[in-house]
Every structure is written in structure tokens, then in C-alpha cells.
Specification:
271 residues, alpha/beta, Rossmann fold, DNA polymerase, domain 1, 2 domains, six-stranded mixed β-sheet, globular, EC 3.1.-.-
Length: 271
């Protein structure tokens, strides 16, 4: 059978399922201990159910669940305000992750936990590596950063809304092409990750500029920009380049394993 790898952005999945399970029971932002155990059990069951549905729908030959590192990744070292103010994972959920990983393994879906990189970078590295071989990858996540990877062999699937986030979705939402998204967010900023972007440049202006000039590099070298726009762009070019670096997914992380290690048993039997 043709190779089809699904890469699951594990904490994106788990934390969203947990939030749904937790919400009805929150009182003064705290859970009673017995309720906490029930919420964790429901979360684990929800994750197992979600994985089963993914495997059934996508019929992959290979699969991997990718987790973020426990330690802060390299982006925090370059930009201390990265993701500033984002709610931390509850410790009781963090303590449950190994049990969820064990449940995933019952489906023969292994888990990769990074030592220093974000799950996004690991997923991007593996997705691009497989796609360059002409083989197919489905990234399961609602994280918009993966949309910059879209191509003939890389798809992004939103499990919660049961839809693919494709090029049409990108054009309708952001008014740019997938390959322009990193430049687009560099200009507009990315509130999710607390990256400020260029003051005074919003989505409409950014999409219009990229439609005309195609890339941030071309913009910075353009001589026919409005003076007001040129001034904004050139106020701190080094900071702008930092924002772009933070928003760009790494694609060259040494992985230390082969695709055959991710092959699912039924796929092996059919080969």
C-alpha cells in the first residue's frame, strides 16, 4: 500500500479534549480531587476514542504522536516573551500523559517526546522529509503554524471540526498563499505566541503587500513603497528578522529513527 503517515500534534489534541471535560466542573477555577480523577479518566478515554477514529478515517500506513519538550524550547531563549501569559498545563494532566501514551501504544502508535524542540518543529521536519520522497503526510492539529507546510503531499486535518485546512481555507482566512504565511504573520504579529509584528500593519495591509511583492525579502528591498510603510518596515529590521525566525518551523532536526519504526501492524501485513 502507498505510504501515508499521520502525525498527531499530541498536546493540541489532549489539552483540547481535557478542556471540554474540565469545563462543566470548574468551581472558582479549581477541581475537587474526586472530580479531577473523573476528568482525567474521561480525557484519557476521549483521547483513545479520537485516535481510533483518526486511524479508521485516514487509514494510515504509519503514525506517530508528537509531544512538546518539558523544558522551554529554543524560541524562549531568543525571545523571552514567547507565549507569555499562556495558561500552563495543569500538573495533574501532565502526570497523566504517560498513561495516555501507553494507551496510544495499544494502537501501535508510538510517542515522540522532544528534549529541546517544540512538537511543531519535529512534526515539520518529519512531514517535509516524507513529502520530499513523494509520500503522503496528514498532520492532525488545529495549530495554524502547520498551514505554511501545505502542499501536494502534506495535508492538515482539524479533528475537532472534521475538516481539512487546505489552500482554499488559507486564502479565504488570510488572503495569502500557504507559502506566504510566515511572512504574513511576521508583519501582522501572532497573538497566540505573543509575537508583536510590525506596529500599524494589519491583515488587510499585509495581504495586499504580499500580493504585490510576494515576500518579506522583496518588501524590504522595494524602493517604491509608500514612505509610511517603508518607515514601519525599516524601524527595526533585526527585530523583524527575529520574528520571522520564531515563526518559521525547523525542518532539519536529527530524528534518530526510521519510517519503518512508525509502520502500523496492519500496514505491514498488507505489504
Amino acid at each position: 500500500m502507498p505510504l501515508h503517515l499521520i502525525l498527531i500534534d499530541a498536546l493540541n489534541l489532549i489539552r483540547r479534549i481535557y478542556a471540554v471535560q474540565e469545563r462543566p466542573f470548574l468551581l472558582n477555577n479549581e477541581l475537587a480531587e474526586n472530580t479531577k480523577r473523573q476528568v482525567l479518566f474521561n480525557t484519557q478515554q476521549g483521547c483513545v476514542s479520537a485516535l481510533g477514529k483518526m486511524l479508521e478515517q485516514h487509514q494510515p500506513s504509519h503514525a506517530l504522536a508528537v509531544f512538546d519538550s518539558i523544558a522551554p524550547c529554543w524560541r524562549y531563549q531568543l525571545f523571552p516573551d514567547y507565549k507569555k501569559g499562556r495558561k500552563k498545563m495543569p500538573q495533574h494532566l501532565a502526570d497523566k500523559l504517560s498513561d495516555i501514551q501507553d494507551e496510544f501504544m495499544r494502537f501501535s502508535v508510538d510517542s515522540l517526546v522532544s528534549e529541546a524542540d517544540e512538537a511543531d518543529d519535529l512534526i515539520a521536519t518529519l512531514a517535509v522529509k516524507v513529502a520530499l520522497r513523494g509520500q503522503n503526510v496528514t498532520i492532525v492539529s488545529t495549530d495554524k503554524s502547520f498551514l505554511s507546510l501545505l502542499g501536494p503531499n502534506i495535508k492538515v486535518y482539524d479533528y475537532f471540526n472534521r475538516r481539512y485546512l487546505d489552500e482554499t481555507y488559507v486564502r479565504e482566512k488570510f488572503k495569502v498563499k500557504p507559502e506566504q504565511l510566515v511572512d504574513f504573520w511576521t508583519l501582522t504579529g501572532d497573538s497566540t505566541n505573543k509575537i508583536p509584528g510590525v506596529a500599524g500593519i494589519g491583515q488587510i495591509t499585509a495581504s495586499a503587500l504580499l500580493s504585490q511583492y510576494d515576500s518579506l525579502a522583496a518588501l524590504l528591498n522595494a524602493k517604491d513603497l509608500k514612505q509610511s510603510v517603508m518607515t514601519k518596515l525599516h524601524e527595526d529590521v533585526d527585530q523583524l528578522k527575529l520574528y520571522r525566525q520564531l515563526l518559521t518551523l525547523k525542518q532539519d532536526i536529527p530524528l534518530g529513527f526510521n519510517l519503518k519504526d512508525l509502520r502500523l501492524p496492519l500496514a505491514s501485513e498488507s505489504e
